[in-house]
Amino acid sequence: MLQNLAYELSVLVKAVQHKNLSAAAVHVGLSQPQLSRLVAKIEHELNIILLDRTARRKSGWTPIALELAATYAKGVGRLQSELLALAQDREITELHIGTLEGLSQIASQFAKSCFEQLKIKTIYLDILDFKDLDSEFLGGNLDMIFTVKSPSKQKFNHLLEVGYQQMERITTSKDTLICSPFEYSGFDKKEQEAAKNTLISNSLALRQNWLSTYGGTGTIPTEARKGRGKGHYTVYLIGADLLSPKIWNQIVQVIG
User: Is the whole model's pTM more than 0.90, yes or no?
Assistant: First the structure.
């Protein structure tokens, strides 16, 4: 059961460091409703209470929440140390990489370099939206990710700035607003209300095709380019903590 809650418990470990749910949401990279649902899932699965909801204003963490987080962090830390020691000299023949669709070209170029320079035999390259990219990476299912925002406020041991990306605003009509779920959550309400229709899709290809075929208003990321500080968004390559320093140093050389 705990294995199925690995991502949720890893978030809880960071969340309980802050006094209540609203304060924690600011620091774990999730909205308050998302964090609330995550906490509720743990409570349901383990049949425990993590939040004291009797408080009039902001719910605080129960003692069992603090104990659970500490126990999980201690166990995961010990496991990671043991796995990292085993992985130091292990030959890497397979990589699992996640990327945002708008960064697929730079991710593909990286994968090709891994084939040629690191002699990696098999690479899984998955295109995911922000939400799934974060959860899959923090849940331990991806070795590394290409993204334009860190999955959480935590510091990662393996992180590189590998390029930049700009956003292109396209407006051929104001009748239809075209956006990703991530963009929609941050849109100004006046802009949402001004549009006659709104199309929300996590597929960049679909949004691009709609804008070119039917028109509308939307923001499309340009092709990611190598370099630093020249674009609206910095492109990051983030590696899992369990990647051995040896393979990460090789990856740094490939990127460089």
Answer: no
